[in-house]
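FIELD: query
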Amino acid sequence: MKMTPETRKILKHYKTLVNERRRELGLRPITTPMLLDDICDLLTRREQLFIGGQFIQQKVKY
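FIELD: result
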């Protein structure tokens, strides 16, 4: 998957933040694919999104 350097930097930031908190709780670190899975899951639970220059209204997944 091709990503811009900025996108890689953002993912690395959040992965580091999440893993620091998980470490404090004695949990295993997450991988980048796991982080992306969680981000995608979060997006499906949002009623409104703005992605790729498009506003998307969707039914919320529960």
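FIELD: remark
The two ends are 29 Å apart (CA to CA).
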